[in-house]
Design brief:
- The longest helix has 18 residues.
- With 221 residues, this protein is of the alpha/beta class.
- Helices cover 36% and strands 22% of the residues.
- A hairpin with a 2-residue loop joins strand 10 and strand 11.
- It is globular.
- The strands form 3 sheets. The chain has a 6-stranded mixed sheet with strand order 7-8-9-3-10-11, with helices on both faces.
- The chain binds adenosine-5'-diphosphate (2 copies).
- One adenosine-5'-diphosphate (ADP) binds next to strand 7.
- One adenosine-5'-diphosphate binds next to helix 1.
- One of its GO terms (cellular component) is ATP-binding cassette (ABC) transporter complex, substrate-binding subunit-containing.
- Keywords: ATP-binding, Cell membrane, Membrane, Nucleotide-binding, Sugar transport, Translocase, Transport.
- This is Multiple sugar transport system ATP-binding protein.
- One of its GO terms (biological process) is carbohydrate transport.
């Protein structure tokens, strides 16, 4: 992200000249209070929101004008957007079916992804019969089979109780390291920010206030 600005109407910019360079495989958290601009920034990365000015780059590609489907990113939503009538297998396979992949390719990719995500024993289940953590992994599986260049999370844990949130936090962290996939994660929760990411971007009223490792933030809050 280079000098990214978002203005809605004439008011104060929702995102005000933000530059963040996310390294390949890195896990970056966008954190800040409600209204600081973090969802707007995430939506501009994915392509769901127009960018007023600045350059959004993926690798050496400028993607400002690319549609979401052309950006090859995978957004993991709060409710995971799983299809309730489809099995785990078919939920993970879904993007490949859309892309008209042949059955052998689908099978190979779905099995590889479900093995990595430790879902191989649950392939015949429906989402209603899964735990929250397993559902999250199905959502990630969908992203993996598409070979997405990055995961984007928008407050995925905010509807969960404290205990489950703690479990899922360590699970997301573990899987992200295992997959080595570049990740940008939006939260207003300071614990998540300080425990999940390699680096934390602290936003306030659309401005990037700090961009540092959790360790640096602890010693220099
Ligand atoms: P956060 O995700 O940190 O809660 P948002 O990115 O949702 O913050 O919002 C940042 C600012 O932009 C807020 O002041 C919000 O009111 C404003 N905003 C967000 N979406 C819109 C919109 N569609 N139209 C006008 N203003 C918006
Ligand atoms: P359609 O628009 O054809 O009904 P979808 O809306 O499911 O199909 O997906 C269209 C495109 O949107 C996909 O090819 C993909 O690039 C993008 N897309 C779908 N789901 C996600 C997601 N969770 N995160 C990011 N991009 C997505």
């Amino acid at each position: 992200m280079k000098n990214i600005v978002k203005k809605y109407g004439d008011g104060f910019p929702a995102v005000n000249d933000i530059s963040i360079d996310v390294a390949d495989g890195e896990f970056v958290i966008l954190v800040g209070p409600s209204g600081c601009g973090k969802s707007t920034l995430l939506r501009m990365i994915v392509g769901l929101e127009d960018i007023t000015s600045g350059d959004m780059m993926i690798g050496d590609r400028r993607v400002n004008d690319l549609a979401p489907r052309e950006r090859n990113l995978a957004m993991v939503f709060q409710n995971y957007a799983l299809y309730p009538h489809l099995t785990v297998y078919e939920n993970i396979a879904f993007p490949l079916r859309l892309a008209k992949a042949d059955d052998a390719t689908v099978d190979e990719k779905v099995r590889a992804a479900s093995k990595t995500l430790e879902l191989d024993e649950h392939l015949d289940r429906k989402p209603a019969n899964l735990s929250g953590g397993q559902r999250q992994r199905v959502a990630m599986g969908r992203a993996i089979v598409r070979d997405a260049d990055a995961f984007l999370f928008d407050e995925p844990l905010s509807n969960l109780d404290a205990k489950l949130r703690g479990q899922m936090r360590s699970e997301i962290s573990r899987l992200q390291k295992k997959l080595g996939i570049t990740t940008v994660y939006v939260t207003h929760d300071q614990t998540e920010a300080m425990t999940l990411g390699d680096r934390v971007a602290v936003l306030k009223r659309g401005i990037l206030q700090q961009l540092a490792t959790p360790r640096e933030l602890y010693s220099n809050p």
